[in-house]
Amino acid sequence: MNCAAELIRAAEAAGVHLRLTPEGSCKIAGDPAAVARWAPRLRPHKLEILATLQAGESEARHRRWRLTYQDGEVDELDCVPEATRSEVEGRYPGAEVEAVPTVRH
Question: How many structural domains compose the chain?
Fold first, then answer.
């Protein structure tokens, strides 16, 4: 396990989502407060994070996913067993895919 993969997983758990753009850069999305907290921590590891995303080593599995289609429609998906972002994107091409954090009580 590499440090970048651990950072990506921790950021995802905090509601910060990192993904590769078609141009090969990294896009950070999620709750603005969480992004503001995590961006300074992630920035020094940008090259390692990019390499990890490109290698697919950060593929965390999640049960719930939010899909935003090109027409703006939003849907949530439950996956049993849990699925990776790549698996969900493969099933719903063109949709913006975001993991929905699981709330544990």
Answer: 2
Residues 72-93: pLDDT tens digits? 999 999 988 888 887 888 888 8
Closest by Cα among 79, 64, 67 to 12: 64
- Determine, yes or no, domain membership for 105: no
Q: Same domain for 10 and 48?
A: yes
User: Does pTM surpass 0.70?
Assistant: no
Which of 67, 74, 13, 16 lies closest to 40, judged by CA? 16
Q: Which domain holds residue 71?
A: 62-99
For residue 14, what are its two tokens?
């905090």
Q: Spell out the residues 6+ positions from residue 35 whose beta carbon is closer than 8 angstroms to its own.
A: 16, 28, 29
